[in-house]
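Here is a protein:
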Amino acid sequence: MSSTTSLRSRTAGRGAAPRENPGEQTAWGCAPPYGLDRAAQSRLIWACLAIAIAARSVRFLLRFPLWEDECFLAANFIDRSYLDLLGPLNFHQVAPLLFLWVELTCVKLFGFAEWPLRLFPFVCSLGSLLLFRRLAARLLEGLPLLLAVAAFSLNYSGIRYAAEAKPYGPDQFVSLVLLTLAVAAWRRPHERRWLWLLAAVAPLAVGLSYPALFMAGGISLALAYVLWTSGDRRGWLAWTVYNAALAGSFALLLLLTRHQAASELGFMQDYWKDNLPSLASPLRFAGWLIVTHASELMSFPVGGERGASTLSFIVWIIGLAALCRSRRWTLLLLCLAPAALNIVAAMMGRYPYGGHVKFAQYLAPAISMVIGVGGAAVVHWHERRTGHGRRALVIALAIFSLVPLGTMARDFVSPYKSKTDARYRDFARWFWFDAEFDSEVACFKTDLGQEFAPGTFHHLGWSAMYLCNQKIYSPRHARGEPLRLDLVSDERPLRCVQFRAQVYKYDQAAFDRWLDAMQRRYQLVSRDTFAFPCFDQRGRNLLCLDHIDVFKFTPKANVASKLLRQGQH
């Protein structure tokens, strides 16, 4: 296009940038970097995507044991219906309603297991990679495009949440769908179908992802700016319908899940307390903003907590400055308005800002694009000073690639998130199959409805992992078959299994009453106890010591004879 050359020269620092044209079709960027033609650049982009797809697929296919955070949510799919998911969830969980329904559908179709529970996040993650490349190519070109794709695809969090039964991977995909439609509406102002399509998609987006509300709200502000600067009066009708659909679907979602949200709001606010800012002290608020953005929020492509993302944050600031200098106001609005709305929600105590990269997955596309722009500016500056820009680019891409390559190597060597998760699953694989082979096995909680330590199966703890692994690896529970007490005999005894958590007070008197009642019908043959030490993810600090008790019963002879005589009569 005729304006592309002049735009590239301005972004390289020669001349003043023009006022942004809302309908302009050119992308922000610069010429293919340092002797790389467009074909070479395209190959590098697809190489990044191939490595990212491979890392995500390896993590998914290795079928890591469910870890505690996944189990907290997954345990709610064991025996609940679609309508039951409207109410408060066990283990202090809150999740978007449509996401819960999609997960439950996968469980009903394919069974309760690691792969079905993670299938939807995995598909969303792969879709995000392909969708981001397409979206970024509409907004960026040259070196900014290459670095943006690398930052988005090669970071660890994208690999992790591609294979976790949590809504963070879908958050990213939903955000990208909304952004892609918004950019189409911006770049094709006379094709109003994109605005109407946004209005149709908005209810689904809000139902699948809570932070989609921030992205959708930021898009509304950006498109309002586009309509205002372009003088397009007819587009306001579609924009109004879009906002009405957004507000209406959000209100309906609040109504349907009001009991779920209300029951956990206090717990969540305490959990998020470090990420719910206040304007009471402007100086403290400014410091909080700097620390938050220099930590996990900006870990694209690398970074972490306690300021470990400072370099990414600086590059992001440089990218914002470059976009401001080029007066790309619509792109800036699309990248910043959702975060601003998130900060407002955080001030209201409704959703955290920063704190953990999982909460930033919906912002990953916007953050990655700005980092791509800032990274290109840094590489160009380095080229002008040293003449080794291409070497810097190759080193940067090689370092970024080490993240997914190292992750794949680690996953093959240690296919689990923590050793505690692996030990829990190994026990379940061994115990449930072997025990059910020659006996009837009853779980205190799921089969007998007995719970002698109130709160064990409702609050955070490894009981969720016990329930999930039981559902997966107990052949009878996996088939959904009831307990068969009529099959209990001397040759096929009854084993009753109790999970006992250290942190909850145990009602010994209630247990003794239950045991007395059982012994009126059965003979207690043995009692075995298995200790479960639970460590932190690094395996260094003991968090608690839980236990699994197994009581073995056989029928009493006089009871069996009486039942036999009753059957004869």
